[in-house]
Design brief:
289 residues; alpha/beta; Aldehyde Oxidoreductase, domain 3; six-stranded parallel sheet; 9 helices; elongated
Length: 289
């Protein structure tokens, strides 16, 4: 597996799965208890075109209930599949299979939804050189999982949390008195961390370019201001050394137009916030055909 698609640590995945199984099973699966506990097979069907993501969580759900379960995937993580594709087969104990079904599919459908949405945005800006980033607008408790799904869909990750990047926004600038002063304070406090600065005017953009940072967020710039910002950042003496980011209210209909203006990255909360799960099902028995 590539570094890009390396999942979170096994302990973190196991913790996600333990919470999911605990809230679903509680004191025991009273319906699964009606089944004879015998060897059984099952298959997972993807009912719509999608980018499949979430295999580590799906596998962990079933292995937590039946360590001997055999899961054979017919597709790789991050693959585009057509509606009607059997993506995996399972062989294990009947009760464990049906007990783990919902939790396993919940992870798979949620993360596939994030990966599929991300892939649509990545396709929309193809050929422009602009990268698609996520945000911190993730489902509580699933940030690592959803950011992994963004990578599976071809996107890139913004900061993981409030601890790994300094991000100066309008309130920080207001308190500091200027963009220049805010950048100086941030560098003094956290010299080893990346610094992203949000600007609201072209004058603030020049301040940020002069003071230096890792990326500049040109939030709420109209088309004319955005194009002028690109011209300034790419021209002498700055020469494009500091990337420009657009964020806020970007949807699939407008993302390519923004990318063709020349910005370097576009961060989109909808990748993880406006979630539409992919339709998947798991059925006992051998797969059709």
């Amino acid at each position: 597996m590539s570094l890009r698609l390396r999942p979170p640590a096994a302990a973190d995945i196991d913790a996600d799965v333990a919470r999911a199984l605990a809230e679903d099973i509680g004191a025991g699966d009273v319906t699964a208890a009606l089944l004879p506990d015998v060897p059984e097979v099952a298959y997972v069907l993807c009912k719509e075109d999608a980018v499949v993501c979430g295999r580590p969580w799906f596998d962990a759900c079933h292995r937590a209930l039946d360590p001997q379960v055999r899961i054979e995937w017919r597709i790789a993580e991050g693959d585009h599949v057509r509606a009607g594709t059997v993506v995996a087969t399972l062989a294990g104990r009947s009760r464990a299979l049906v007990t783990g079904e919902r939790s396993g599919l919940n992870f798979l459908q949620t993360l596939s939804g994030t990966a599929t949405t991300t892939a649509a945005y990545v396709r929309a800006v193809s050929g422009t050189g602009t990268r698609i980033l996520d945000t911190r607008k993730t489902l509580p408790g699933l940030r690592q999982a959803q950011k992994y799904a963004v990578r599976a869909g071809g996107g890139d990750n913004h900061r993981m949390g409030l601890y790994d990047t300094v991000m100066l926004k309008e309130n920080h600038v207001r308190v500091a008195g200027s963009v220049t002063a805010a950048i100086a304070a941030a560098r003094a406090q956290s010299p080893g961390l990346p610094l992203v600065v949000e600007v609201e005017t072209l004058a603030q953009l020049r301040e940020a370019l002069d003071a230096g940072c890792e990326r500049i967020l040109i939030d709420d710039f109209d088309t004319g201001m955005r194009r002028e910002a690109v011209r300034l950042a790419r021209g002498a003496p700055y020469d494009g050394r500091i990337p420009l980011e657009v964020s806020g209210g970007v949807d699939l209909d407008m993302v390519r137009a923004i990318a063709t203006d020349g910005v370097d990255v576009i961060s989109i909360g909808a990748l993880t916030k406006h979630l539409r799960a992919v339709d998947l099902s798991m059925k006992l028995g051998p797969p059709p055909g």
